Amino acid sequence: MKHPRLAGTAALLTAVALTAACSSGGGGDAGGESPSGTGPITVWLSNNEQEVGWGQDVVDAWNAEHPDEEVTAQEIPAGSSSEEAITAAITAGTAPCLVYNISSAAVPGWVRQGGLVNLSQFEDGTSYVEDRVGEGAQTYLTDDGYYQLPWKSNPVMVMYNKAVFEEAGIDPENPDMATYDDFLAGSRKIVESGAADSAIWPSPTNEFFQPWFDFYPLYLAESGGTSLVEDQAATFDDENGKAVADFWASIYSEGLAPQEASTDDAMSAGTTAMQLAGPWAIASYAESVDVGFMPVPTSSGEAEPVTFADSKNVSMFTSCENQATAWEFLKFSTSEESDGQLLEATGQMPLRTDLATTYADYFEANPAYEVFAAQAERTGDVPSIPNSVEVWQAFRDDYSSAVIFGSSTVEEFLSGAAETINGLVQG
Amino acid sequence: MSTATREPRTTEVRTTRSRWWGRQPVGSLFALPYLVFVLAIFAYPLGFAVWIAFHDYFFTAPGVDVPKPFVGLDNFAAVLTDPQVLEAFRNIGVFLVINVPLTVVLSMVLATALNAGIRWAAAYRIAFYVPYLTASVSLVGVWLLLFSSGGLVNSVLGPLAPDPSWLVNSSLAMPTIALYVTWKQLGFYILLYLAALQSVPRELHESAATDGANAWQRFRNVTVPGVRATTVLVLVLAIITGANLFTEPYLLTNGGGPDGASVTPVLLIYQRGIQQQNPDTAAAIGMLLVIVVGVLSLAANRINRER
């Protein structure tokens, strides 16, 4: 902290109020010039090196064919999360035409801000989204409109270190840990044998998005794909939610997972045997760890459970003047060919039907990714609901208290969080 | 009589005018950019934040016209009945109770020691001042390694190490943060006291010594009263910066800590205003914090003056 700052929160309030002041002083049409506008546009990409490479290749290919509608690609400005950088850009009117890293959880808030273009307003908008994703497209509706194009997913599975499993006396080719009981038994073996300090190490921190990598994948699996909120009511205060919460509470109370965040990459460091991750992690561990994958566990040992999609999508922003160009580029960059290039470059799964057959050659050459392609057919996502981020934060606060730190009971967590969330989604 | 009554009035008006422009109007001109800066960067946003706190407000894209109705004290009622907000204020209370007295006592004692001409005084001054100059982010990394469950501190403590460890222990997280902030900022406050100690007349110490006062009595009866004005300044600054606590709990305990044990009001303002897009309730929390800090600072000032 620096000295001296005047009274209380002045500095932060200054930032908040200044941003707000900008929002009230702008002009122009919230909908941009016109959906038919053409000309140069700017797009933002995540700061993942492989994705930036893919994006630049796609942009170069487009620019070669469209000299009058030049696309400029930039990385999303630095911030503690891309959502915060995008929120600030919407408020200031400096958002680009397209952003290729949209979390569904942030979309309802941005729609409320008037920051996103409803893709359904394009003549072929609705059909493009629904042809691409199939029946699952409904998940991405907000206020009866598609404000995001489902782009790619990273289905969450259990990734494990084969060498650690072997040392703990678990068959790395067939771990047999599909049920909660078997998973707990295997975890105890790992810790008791000393093969690793912890069996599994989800981040126990308090950020709103952490449930997507511990509770939520298992809840989707246990419930057969039920979202956290459906029909404007929390769903998890039931047997499925209790089974999942009890499972994680056992993991923490038995010391099978640490209560503090790892200061390094626990898988690479060998301090944990398992983690929940998507296919992005395969490349990360290619050199350091011999990894295996298995579906997330359920109480009954479901062979092909649903899991969390961890999708990242593409949205168009109302500050974009040349929305027709943006729409055409969006379709170009999510064509079958471009999706194939994305898969090749990043290992992340394009969100489209018939993934495994469309890119059969790739999966034949890269069998490690094939299991994720199969899993990608069975995923659920975060629901598109009012106060989405607040809902997940409330959930995380109560989960941490009961499940990670044991300060309250699982029953109190389930009923308390459900009551809070019902209040938030019903306004 | 009449002349006698008119004369002072004229003088008063003239004095007021000369005060407004100052003796050197050019000086006011030089001060003008800073005045504009204060109005634009502090006063206007602060006023706007007060306005936000009394309205149903959220950020919108430019040109999006949505109603932002006046809601009176609704936002304040919402935050005052929010258990997390109350916990955040409790947490900051714990922090201030540990941090402020430690800061005042340690910085005064260490400054007195450094002023007494001990050996290696320059090295000590630098050692105390370096943490203050170093970026919080890098120092936080060191403390994470020191105070993690497998860190150096627990290795030294062995079986005496707390379980769960320091920064994930709901009873110890905030005290650990308070110690960290005290250590980090000590150099700045020592510097203030070192400057103040220069103005305490050496003759007073010599007289006291001649009268038979020992070192503790000289410190208590000469040094402490001699630096009272600085003590008030240190108290007020420590309260204000302590109440602003954000970076340390955010980085050391990953955004709120174990079971919310290190959530602070400013951390909540960030969560509510920026992450959750509820600037109206964030502004209400900010207003409450300004009031609390103002009252504490005034109280600290008043108590010290009365002494």
Molecular shape of chain A: globular
**CATH class value of the largest domain in chain A:** Alpha Beta
Helices and strands of chain B, in order, run as HHHHHHHHHHHHHH
How many individual helices of chain B?
14
Q: Numbering strands along the chain, what is their spatial order in the largest sheet of chain A?
A: 2-1-3-14-6-15
The CATH superfamily of chain B is MetI-like
Q: What gyration radius of chain B follows from the Cα positions, in whole Å?
A: 25 Å
Q: Which structural class should the secondary elements of chain A be placed in?
A: alpha/beta
Q: Briefly, what CATH class of chain B?
A: Mainly Alpha
CATH topology of the largest domain in chain A: D-Maltodextrin-Binding Protein, domain 2
Pfam families (chain A): SBP_bac_1
Keywords (chain A): Signal, Sugar transport, Transport
GO cellular component, one term (chain A): ATP-binding cassette (ABC) transporter complex, substrate-binding subunit-containing
Family (chain A): Belongs to the bacterial solute-binding protein 1 family.
